[in-house]
Design goal:
This protein is mostly beta strands and 141 residues long. The protein has no helices and 14 strands. A hairpin with a 5-residue loop joins strand 10 and strand 11.
């Protein structure tokens, strides 16, 4: 796989992530390593990042399909993730939103809520999280 190849990723309840070639619809890789279903998956070249009900986030090499590292810290399923620069933002059933260093997997920040965090999104200046019946904006700095 090279950086010019257009890829699509899909996560599944069968614990796998499938990486597809956009132009040919061919399955290029099947990534295995999660022990429960995959809830969210993103491409942020050269990485593929996956979130699972097994309480983990995995960072994969998009070129060869190998797992680079597993991020531990959530104590319940991870529902959502997004990537901004070298940071991963995740939200989970443990009622936390966390910010991780993509290179080391170290937790840089954590915020607790009264409800599970179902969705997160971010840009360079703001993070939004959906939890319970409302969404919250956070300053990303």
């Amino acid at each position: 796989t090279n950086s010019d190849r257009k890829l699509i990723v899909s996560g599944s309840g069968d614990k796998t992530i499938r990486v597809w070639d956009y132009d040919t619809s061919e399955c290029v890789f099947v990534l295995q390593g999660h022990t429960r279903g995959v809830k969210d998956v993103k491409i942020h070249y050269p990485w593929i990042i996956s979130a699972s009900y097994d309480n983990t986030i995995k960072v994969w090499n998009a070129c060869n399909g190998k797992c680079i590292h597993t991020i531990l810290g959530h104590v319940d399923g991870v529902n959502s993730l997004c990537v901004v620069g070298d940071a991963i933002v995740s939200g989970g059933d443990d009622k936390t939103m966390r910010v991780w260093d993509i290179w080391s997997g170290r937790c840089l920040n954590m915020e607790m809520f009264d409800h599970a965090v179902w969705s997160v999104d971010a840009n360079s200046s703001h993070i939004i999280s959906a939890h319970g019946c409302y969404a919250t904006w956070h300053d990303a700095s």
